[in-house]
Specification:
With 346 residues, the chain is an alpha/beta fold. It folds into 2 domains: 86 residues, Alpha-Beta Plaits; 255 residues, P-loop containing nucleotide triphosphate hydrolases (Rossmann fold), CATH 3.40.50.300. The chain is built from 12 helices and 13 strands. An 8-stranded mixed beta sheet has the order 6-7-5-8-4-9-10-13, with helices on both faces. The two termini are 38 Å apart.
Length: 346
Amino acid sequence: MSDKLITSIYEITKNYCDPVSNIPLNKSNSNFSIICKDGHANISLNITQQDQEKYIDLSKNLKKALGSINDLLSVNIIFTSEKTADKESKEHYRFQISAKNIIAIASGKGGVGKSTFAVNFAVALKKIGHQVGILDADIYGPSVPRMMGISGRPQTNDNKKLVPLESYGIKCMSIGFLIGVDTPTIWRGPMVMKALEQMFNGVAWGKLDYLIIDLPPGTGDAQLTLAQSSKLSGSIIISTPQDVALIDARKGINMFKKVNVPVLGIVENMSYFICSKCNERHEIFSSGGAKKEAEKFETPFLGELPLDKNLRIYSDEGRPICVFDPESSIAATYLAIAKKVHGNLH
């Protein structure tokens, strides 16, 4: 009975969003919880104390909407505030940077086009008017320098911080700038963590609207440390449609949920292929799997991107498609995703 009632409540609350974070009040929202007993429901939402007045209308609207559930005898809505959440001080985070939004681009496994998405997503955010930086946190396989068409070694400023290199108006930092192109990164965990901290705290990023982090594939120590030690606004999960990739994508989603990082959405990459001869759509890796996962986790589905020859060529040549083929359908999709994510965060 209680489980059925909780499901009915979620069916209504998922249509409402936190007025501050704009995150839906669904099962994926780690700050939102529902407890039911004998037809009575206690609903709690964790907020910051100074924002308390912004939730008055939400409380009234929820109570009114939930009144339509026949089996619900009473509902009590509680807004809680943890002291650590009130402070949200920079000292709370080991990795510090002056960016309004920090978004991690993640995938449960390699080879799904995560770095290609991170680069073009960053360029799309720049094209719609934001100050953007991209951090290549894939220590063992840095590909951002190649995809951004940039090389060289960062200089240090008077404060002994590295000055990020710039390409297409985007500030870039990668371990690939500090080691040779063909040099393998044979490092153990502590060295990787130190390198990641250096690329956060030891870089003169300046003020950014967005810092995009290209995470290593998987759900290991590096991903977990970045999620817990930096003030992430959220994450975007990249997956191809087939079941093998989706199994690992689920792990990524659950990892971020456990460390209270919102999943801003899921992108289905290599969703289809348009044949240049027959001009027909071919779904090489199946199709629609990522969208179904998004519905299952009640997470926004941000869009699907094709397996495209020109996108591969542009990436290899260090020419983001949003810059060099802005009229293409792929560039339009990246811009639409950038606008959607920005709109959901503000």
